[in-house]
Amino acid sequence: MNGAALLSGDGIALKPFREEDATDRYVGWLNDPMVTRYLDVRFTPQTRVTGLAFVRSFQSEVEKYMWGIWPDGEDHPVGTARLYHINRTHGGAELGLLIGEKDLWGGRTASVVIGLIARHAFGPLGLRRLTGGTYAPHHAMNFLYRKLGFRLEGRLVKAHRLGEEYVEGYRLTILAEEWAARHGV
Predict the structure, then answer these.
(1) Whether the predicted model's global pTM rises above the 0.70 cut
(2) Helix (H) or strand (E) run with residue 173 in it
(3) Which domains does the chain carry?
């Protein structure tokens, strides 16, 4: 297992993502151009072997966590969430999120998942800041981060290739005290 704690609340459980969770469904998400439109994984065709290698990378000595997203009543994960680039010296980490099941896009799943990870990061893990990266045209994710209290920390000029053009990237950040003031935890 990747050392990630089981996190749950608001009808969603984040369970450590295991090798047996890297099913054909998971590999399908990684190869779906709509699901990966704003993810670098889209540039390389994915297989069960590459998917398993990625999952196994979370079993390394480096502190990083990967969860499967399990809404109540589901018999399989509907996406993955990650906490990585953890820097204990400075108390920061990055969030990563993939909702593979498109019927859950635009709902509350992503918001609940980010909340569960933030409470864990700022609580038991003792981190002081979380950062998420997005592409400028990824309006849904940009809106969600801002709704949750993240603020734009940086713009990366023409940093990401999207189709035949290059678009800005955004870095959005929230500090532990800002999260606590806004969300009470």
Answers:
(1) yes
(2) strand 165-175
(3) 7-131 (3.40.630.30)
